[in-house]
Write a sequence for this structure.
């Protein structure tokens, strides 16, 4: 980690790949408020969170507690009202939109609940987009590799509308993997999927964590959270619990939804 | 939701729709407004012209009948009035006035001194003159002897002041106290042989006594004009007048109002011109309607999912239709209302143009409700149908179809599946624009058609300008080719080539060279049809003369028989080089006697002048017309120090000279003759340009809206704003290129049709070739491609402000 905390692009941080210290996530005193007309909605309140590299972290809590907001802060999609967010040694909270875009390009990759695949691109091309976005060499090769990793090598020529929900989400994961970015941010990746398909998705994510990536999975399902190394519980915008899953880390095959 | 109060609920909901979409609604409404406005504006001109003509001729008491004594014949004042009072129908005559009308010449004097043929009209300037009164446009009527009013169009053309003095003939100077026009002179043809008469004839309206003094004809008149009471039988009274004149032994013609050139031209042109403008305005309205259809359609399509949800919730279909249909209705109402405004604005512009072209005292331009209603009906219908169609499509499907995630955006098409196999080189960002375009071919086609329609209208209008301008340039170039300004000196009759009259011109100061020639009217008979067209035969020494026509088709000019005609004439006559044409022409049978003869001539060439009237023969061929060795025309060239004006001055007053006209003025006159069309085109082109930019812009705007989730995803992956813009721009360019190609092709097609079918009746005398200038093509490309491509730049703020987290989690 770079202690100088400068906001400019740090080559050591940006080039950080799997397993490097530069993938640390540090949130200090992060508060996020939305103002709707006369009313202030506090989505996050004084969040202090530190995640080491190569961790599998679950963020749990009821709907509306601020999980997505938290993930968006870490992914530099949004900036806090106060407090600092540091990802891979770069201070995202004070960065310009361009610098934040750079951070997203090289450090984090998103997996959305609603997939957000490009409908006009094939599965392969959607995945390749991830590699292109991160400016990877041999993006086609990486895309093939990533598709194979999620078990969809045969469907590479299919368009999103020709794939099932689970397949679409696996394509989205492959897209994130192809970027080669060390931090994976998955917001309710199984929310749209049935149990069996959801388990497949979780397995893929767990494999990534084992391979040395930092994986943050948001879920409102505490059962799912049991497979994580660490579970962070949110309630009304505050962290109300942080530690290993209660009752110990579970095996994916033992999950009951 | 299904209770009685629900209408209020739906209305409130669509009001909030409107607030969030007001830019789109306003822009679409403006598109419709411009379409209906141009249609209403252009469509009103015929009625306006007819009303203005009626009012103007009426106000000045345009004569119903006119008695003109034969040239050189004069009678004492009151003779013709007395003759008239003996008619059976005398009681049906409302007003009458005697005049003295004589030809003369004037010198405008001063720096801009020119010498031109003139007509002196001696008349009364008080209540005695209730027929053919002079409308004093500027200045005042003559109050004492020696004062006059100068015809206004001439003064305008020659840039003469409102008041001044003119030397009449070789006689005294006349003060003119104002500029004015008599109704019979709203339009006039020039002295014989003079083409494009405006500015070539100075008409002076003078008190009768002044005219009599100037003409040295004290107490004499030679002209009677009269108006008839409402319902009088004009033909009957004309016949009575004829026989009375005949009995009295006077040589005279009795003509009617309809024989007058001004009446004929001012009324006849209206319908021909209107057909032309109707076609143009229909094109503009059509383009606007198509574009509005497309834009409304796309806005409403975006609500299909919400309709599906409503259906799933069991909301009655009729109620579901209200909200999207209201969008269509809002556009319709706003567009129609704005159309009145735009229509008034454009109508006002056209009205002002009409006022500047038509020298009438009374311009009537009332709002044409009928024409406007036609356009408004379409303006109302189009958005409603455009919103009804997608609603109908949405209500037809099963609710589950409509709400399926991404039903709309991820819709499959065979083309999409095929594009999966199509690999463009480069990254995925290169693939995306083309793929997006191909993914929904129906929508892409509609958008491209909307933009293309606007470009078709633009190319149609600008291409018309191009074609006209080029025709003008060609004509001017042909007239004025050579390094010296040629002056055409018209003689008053035929003179032997070696006569004093001719040599006096050649010997005049500042004239360095002359060529003799002949000019003769003839009628050409078309072979397949019975059409006849007027030609002006000009005999030029093909081998010796300094100026000979440029041949664009056929062998080089050589002396001998045969006629050279304009391309337009050859086309209209159904003949070509090497074939023949039949001419009905005068043939001289004695020193001053002519007979009409019909003979066949071989067409030996096509000349470069687009004006159909001109035909050329070798001077040697004059023998066949009984005109061997005589001339009635001299082409004079100024010396190195002299100018065309010097030449005119030198020949002015020489015996036998009827008129002189520098060819440079002819080309100026042609320019002027087409000015009216050009200005109308420019106004229309400006409207269409606005239309095209609005359409391009809005189409892009809607595209950006539709793709916002994809754009947010790109940004989430760290693509900078400019890369996202790049994708939008490239997508726009693909559609823009297709639209431009279609639009230019459509415009060229429309032009060809306009020029081949309509221009033949509106402008029968000029052969206009289809021409699209590089500028027009550049403007078309700028509007079709650049505007579509640049439009996203105006949306940068919107893209930058896009709330990424919110956009990404939207479920649709
Ligand atoms: N753009 C926004 N504007 C206003 N309020 C928001 C916005 N985004 C989220 N919120 C509010 O912030 C709180 C947390 O939202 P979110 O992080 O999406 O919750 P979760 O993902 O845990 O369900 C909620 O009360 C939500 O209404
Ligand atoms: Mg959430």
């Amino acid at each position: 980690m770079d202690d100088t905390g400068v906001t400019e692009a740090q080559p050591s941080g940006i080039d950080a790949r799997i397993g490097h210290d530069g993938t640390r996530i540090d949130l200090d005193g992060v508060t996020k408020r939305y103002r709707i007309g006369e009313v202030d909605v506090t989505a996050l309140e004084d969040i202090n969170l530190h995640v080491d590299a190569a961790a599998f972290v679950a963020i749990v809590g009821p709907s509306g507690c601020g999980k997505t907001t938290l993930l968006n802060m870490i992914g530099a999609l949004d900036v806090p009202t106060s407090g600092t967010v540091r990802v891979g040694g770069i201070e995202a909270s004070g960065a310009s939109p361009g610098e934040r875009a750079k951070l997203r390009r090289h450090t984090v990759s998103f997996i959305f609940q609603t997939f957000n695949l490009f409908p006009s691109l094939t599965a392969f091309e959607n995945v390749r987009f991830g590699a292109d976005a991160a400016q990877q060499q041999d993006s086609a090769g990486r895309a093939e590799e990533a598709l194979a990793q999620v078990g969809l090598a045969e469907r590479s020529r299919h368009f999103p509308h020709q794939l099932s929900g689970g397949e679409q989400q696996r394509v989205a994961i492959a897209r994130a993997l192809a970027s080669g970015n060390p931090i994976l941010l998955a917001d309710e990746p199984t929310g749209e999927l049935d149990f069996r398909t959801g388990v497949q998705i979780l397995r893929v994510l767990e494999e990534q964590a084992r391979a040395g990536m930092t994986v943050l999975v948001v879920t409102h399902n505490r059962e799912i959270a049991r497979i994580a190394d660490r579970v962070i519980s949110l309630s009304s915008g505050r962290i109300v619990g942080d530690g290993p899953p209660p009752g110990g880390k579970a095996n994916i095959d033992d999950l009951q939804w | 939701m299904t209770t009685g109060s629900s209408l209020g609920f739906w209305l409130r909901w669509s009001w909030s729709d409107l607030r969030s979409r007001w830019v789109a609604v306003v822009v679409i409404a403006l598109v419709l407004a411009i379409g209906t406005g141009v249609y209403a504006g252009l469509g009103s001109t015929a009625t306006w012209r007819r009303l203005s003509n009626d009012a103007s001729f009426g106000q000045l008491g345009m004569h119903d009948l006119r008695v003109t004594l034969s040239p050189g014949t004069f009678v004492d004042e009151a003779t013709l009035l007395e003759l008239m009072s003996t008619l059976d129908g005398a009681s049906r005559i409302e007003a009458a006035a005697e005049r003295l009308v004589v030809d003369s010449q004037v010198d405008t004097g001063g720096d801009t001194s020119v010498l031109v043929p003139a007509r002196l009209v001696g008349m009364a300037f008080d209540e005695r003159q209730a027929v053919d009164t002079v409308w004093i446009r500027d200045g005042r009527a003559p109050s004492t002897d020696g004062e006059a009013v100068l015809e206004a169009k001439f003064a305008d053309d020659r840039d003469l002041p409102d008041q001044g003095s003119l030397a009449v003939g070789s006689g005294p100077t006349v003060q003119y106290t104002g500029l004015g026009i008599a109704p019979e002179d709203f339009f006039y043809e020039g002295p014989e042989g003079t083409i494009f008469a405006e500015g070539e004839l100075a008409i002076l309206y003078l008190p009768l006594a002044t005219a009599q003094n100037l003409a040295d004809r004290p107490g004499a008149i030679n002209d009677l004009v009269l108006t008839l009471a409402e319902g009088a039988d004009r033909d009957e009274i004309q016949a009575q007048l004829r026989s009375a004149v005949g009995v009295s032994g006077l040589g005279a013609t009795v003509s009617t109002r309809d024989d007058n050139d001004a009446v004929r031209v001012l009324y006849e042109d209206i319908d021909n011109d209107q057909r032309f403008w109707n076609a143009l305005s229909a094109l503009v309205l059509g383009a606007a309607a198509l574009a509005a259809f497309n834009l409304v359609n796309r806005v409403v399509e975006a609500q299909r999912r919400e309709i599906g949800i409503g259906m799933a919730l069991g909301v009655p279909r009729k109620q579901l239709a209200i909200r999207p249909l209201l969008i269509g209705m809002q556009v319709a109402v706003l567009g129609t209302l704005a159309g009145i405004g735009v229509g008034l604005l454009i109508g006002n512009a056209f009205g002002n143009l009409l006022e500047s072209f038509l020298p009438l005292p009374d311009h009537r331009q009332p709002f044409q409700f009928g024409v406007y209603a036609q356009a408004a009906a379409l303006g109302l219908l189009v958005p409603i149908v455009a919103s009804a169609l997608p609603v109908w499509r949405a209500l037809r499907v099963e609710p589950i179809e409509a709400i399926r995630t991404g039903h709309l955006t991820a819709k499959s098409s065979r083309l999409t599946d095929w594009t999966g196999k199509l690999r463009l080189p480069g990254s995925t960002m290169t693939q995306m624009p083309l793929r997006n375009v191909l993914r929904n071919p129906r929508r892409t086609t509609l958008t491209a058609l909307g933009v293309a329609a606007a470009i078709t209208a633009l190319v149609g209008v600008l291409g018309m300008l191009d074609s006209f301008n080029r025709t003008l340039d060609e004509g001017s170039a042909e007239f004025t080719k050579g390094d010296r300004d040629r002056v055409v000196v018209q003689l008053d009759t035929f003179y032997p080539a070696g006569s004093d009259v001719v040599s006096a011109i050649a010997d005049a100061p500042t004239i360095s060279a002359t060529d003799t020639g002949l000019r003769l009217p003839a009628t050409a008979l078309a072979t397949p049809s019975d059409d006849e067209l007027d030609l002006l035969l000009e005999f030029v020494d093909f081998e010796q003369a300094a100026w000979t026509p440029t041949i664009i088709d056929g062998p080089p000019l050589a002396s001998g028989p045969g006629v050279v005609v304009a391309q337009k004439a050859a086309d209209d006559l159904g003949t070509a080089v090497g074939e023949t044409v039949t001419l009905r022409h005068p043939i001289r049978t004695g020193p001053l006697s002519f007979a009409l003869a019909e003979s066949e001539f071989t067409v030996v060439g096509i000349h470069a002048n687009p004006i159909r009237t001109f035909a050329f023969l070798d001077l040697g061929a004059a023998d066949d017309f009984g005109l061997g060795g005589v001339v009635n025309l001299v082409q004079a060239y100024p010396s190195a120090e002299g100018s065309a004006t010097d030449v005119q001055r030198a020949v002015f007053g020489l015996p036998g000279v009827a008129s002189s006209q520098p060819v440079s003025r002819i080309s100026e006159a042609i320019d002027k003759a087409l000015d009216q069309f050009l200005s109308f085109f420019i106004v229309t082109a400006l409207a269409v340009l606005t239309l095209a930019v609005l359409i391009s812009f809005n189409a892009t705007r809607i595209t950006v809206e539709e793709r916002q989730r994809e754009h947010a995803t790109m940004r989430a992956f760290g693509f900078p704003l400019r890369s996202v813009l790049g994708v939008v721009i490239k997508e726009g360019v693909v559609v823009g290129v297709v639209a431009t190609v279609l639009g230019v092709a459509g415009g060229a097609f429309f032009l060809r049709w306009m020029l081949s079918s309509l221009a033949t009746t509106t402008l029968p005398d000029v052969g206009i070739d289809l021409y699209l200038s590089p500028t027009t093509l550049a403007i078309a490309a700028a509007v079709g491609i650049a505007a579509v491509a640049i439009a996203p730049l105006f949306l940068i703020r919107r893209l930058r402000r896009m709330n990424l987290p919110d956009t990404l989690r939207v479920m649709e």
In short: The pocket of adenosine-5'-diphosphate (ligand 1) is lined by residues A 34, 36, 41, 43, 61, 63-69; B 806 (CB under 6 Å). The CA atoms of residues 461 and 685 of chain B lie 6 Å apart. DSSP finds 23 helices and 22 strands in chain B. The longest helix of chain B spans residues 663-706.
